[in-house]
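[[Local backbone shapes]]
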Amino acid sequence: MTKFGYTMMCEQSRPDRLVRDVQNAEAAGFDFSVISDHYQPWLASQGHSGYAWAILGAAAQATERIPLMTYVTCPTLRYHPAVVAQKAATVQILSGNRFRLGLGAGENLNEHVVGAGWPSVGARHEMLSEAVEVIAALFDADPGETVNFRGDYYDVESARLWDLPDQRVPIGIAVSGPDSCRLAGEKADLMIAVEPEAELGELFDRAGGGGKSRVGQVAIAYGNDKDAAIKRAHDQFRWFGLGWKVNADLPNPDSFEAATQFVTPDQVADALSCGPDVGAHVEAVKAFVDAGFDEVAVVQIGGDQQDEFMPWAEKELLPALRSL
């Protein structure tokens, strides 16, 4: 049975609000939750970008049942992979084994801030592969064992996770093409994607991912006033249609403003489901189900729209999705 999740979108809400939202998502009956991990918002109109790992710690204590997951963390420049492993193990303990670590090759938007430059896409995939090796080695080390690692991009010197959770943290890898699907199939416990493309799952399976979970994500703009929902989606989410080859390389919100200046509200409405029609939103999610995803996380666009969204999701959206 497909599971349906809720997205804590760090770029559109304050940290304290995100914790309250995930509490409400748990009460509404969502099956899991995911959180974005950004240093900056995509667009200035989104207005926020809290530290995801602090929010996860608070969410772990504020909730009881709902699983948590990064969607996604980049373990290459802004964070060293050994530190990512420590953070993930800590959240797994705090959440009572409800955490999964979603990893990806990252975006210039977030990673350039540490002044280390922005590598080519080939180098980014090599860095991610090596980072996953470091993280997995720390997760899998015997109690008291230290990890030493010498790679092309990372060195680890006598590292040890002093607090290991009872259950190993599952690792997911975000995919968008053959190289990332191969990496996920070989080294991850689950696949992550934001496009409902069945081919991604097929590539993942061929690389060793057969039988493993596939987690997708889709943005919607629910609201009783369809025109207002379209306007909100255009204001905050018009960047989404640029595609990851563009999104990965632009360095700041001003760049995304410039790149999307000619995107119209009608184009956004064609790409994203907007308004009160539950059927339209179900169809947007169903595209992932039909592509073979067994988990789909929903983004409700607009940080100030979550209180309106939650009761509707509980009464209409989730029952309609589960009827699929």
Observations:
- The chain is about 45% helix and 15% strand.
